[in-house]
Here is the input.
Amino acid sequence: MSRVKKRIVAAVVIALAGASGLALLKVEHRRAHEQPLTVAPAAPLPSWGSVEVAESIYDGKLGSGWQDWGWGPHELPKAGAAKVNFSGFGGIIFRHDSLSGQYGLISFRYKAPTDWSDFLQVSLKSSLSPDAQLPDVAVDADHTKAREDGWREVRLDLGVLNPQGAPFDRIVLSGRTSVASEWISIDKVVLTKPSADAPAALAPKRRVALRVACGPQTHAISPLIYGSAMGAWDSGITANRLGGNPTSRYNWELGAWSSAKDWFFENVKSADLGTVIDDAIQHQGFTALTVPIMGWVAKDTSSVGFPAAKFPGQRKYDPYRPQAGDGSQPDGKPIAPGPPTETSTPAPPELISRWISALRDKDRTRGSRGVQMYILDNEPGLWNSTHRDVHPDPVGYDELLDRTVRYATEIRKADSDGLIAGPAEWGWLGYNYSAKDIAVGKFLRPDRRAHGDVPLIPWYLSEIAKHEQATGTRLLDYLDVHFYPAADRVYGDDGAVDEAGRALRLRATRALWDPEYTDESWIDEKIRLIPRLKEWVSENHPGLKISIGEWSFGGEHDISGALATAESLGRFGQQGLDAAFYWGGPKAGTSTYWAFRAYRNFDGKGARFLDEALDTRGEDSVSIFGSRDPADHSHIVAVVVNRDPLYEISAQIALGSCGRPAKYRAFGYRAGSTSLEQLPDTAQAADGVTVTVPPYALQVIDITLQRDARDE
Here is the structure.
């Protein structure tokens, strides 16, 4: 996404161009006779009120994360002081992803003619803030100190440059008076840490009115929405899903599976399923197990799908196992695989049935159930890519239905009380088209047209319902799909944590529920995932529950990831989702870990979001999710998510007829936090409480009421 960035300059043109919208037209304006000023290397900072560097912006070179945004004639050598021409009110801009931390000073050195005085000014800028909030500050004698080596050192208080403590992304050094065209050396540009007794920086504030209602519009919150795929149990997760591409080829008799396309199509030793199940039992958790229905499982722990001896000249080979290739020619074209038997053994429904029976036998010996849910494989719409060494042909409508019927029937025979979920499709195209359609293009969609031009999942649900009615055998208990944001650089290894990436990550959560939100990706449609899935179930197979078997919005180590996760968990409860499994975590200590803790153990002693969802009203950029104990209406827990990167909010939370607050406590998480921290009380009134939430932060409010709630 591009954003117009205002820059006030004189006698200089700035061009914004390029795919990122950040390319600058460099203006060079040096007269032929002018030469750069030659200076000696600058000495270390003096003990002029000693400071501690928090951000090195330019110290002989650009600091990590900082960019040269021009604008006037300037030179940044490979090593040494920067040189800037301040004639014509020129200057230089140093740019960084949005910074919102607390700093003490900006400090830098310059070397200029001795008769130049008060010619400089400094300012901060932000694409998120009006320029008026970030003033230009003149550099005068009060801010400078002459050095013996001919340099002058400047120190400006960030409280003057940024009186409201707003986030900023640029530091501008510019001319404030007309000066001659000479090269001025600039170096040692740093932001310092605040002194120990410095007051906290203040963010701009705004008031918001939020509401939690205890009327009849309540529903139970399923504990299974707090599931994960191999996450940390002390995050408060309630369920564990063993899934992913390797599980499609899991051989339970050998303890082997295939790494598939994820890593050179290699057969390897699998995870220890028994340990996974025992771990869940120990934590009183729920286990969802992905079971193969593709028809092939790994025959050993040594075979590879595209061996170098048989397929020489592949694009890549495993550096640790060079006989395993990636199955592609040097130009990226896929290599036709050999027969599936080279790596795999047939896995008919009867084999899976024997496995389920063995698991149930162990349950009876142990005296407790180990696996509660069986998920019908993993993303069958991608088998022709992820597992193309054994299933190179794309799956169509009929094959998906046939495999579901045959394998689910055998699973039901082996475990009549187990929960079965499917079809575990991968995303938007997989919900609406088969892999056969996608292979030739969704506009042609021959497979879908051959099935009444009905999207894949509604057709699938309708056919399953017909089969169940005809046979009396229940095949599905849950409709299960996966969901990841499709916009560039939101989820994945390249997930962005700059200001634009953070904002997009938070907006992308609206695809889960918002009927007005058009997905900002190649999808470019209103997804409204949970309401859509509910409609498909209601129209085609009433009574099924709904699970999102994999999901994540990325940013695991960034505050935006915490906020997106907290927003998603809140929406799952608000929208009445039945189950969800967070992919790849949450891992201990990450931001997303603390988002889970906000709902599952916010005080470190087991306090959590409660079991009945309450109606709430938020405001722009601020969400609130409410819950109460269905057996004790005097206890309410709410989670507030402030998605505004700039403004601290003073939130007045009206409780209406929920009751009068007797006491409450609050716990907060913000950028830079290492845990959920208990916060001091602020204010409470007869009809609610008031809390303060910093920019880009979440807060949990645990409220005890003076009396039982009564319906409005």
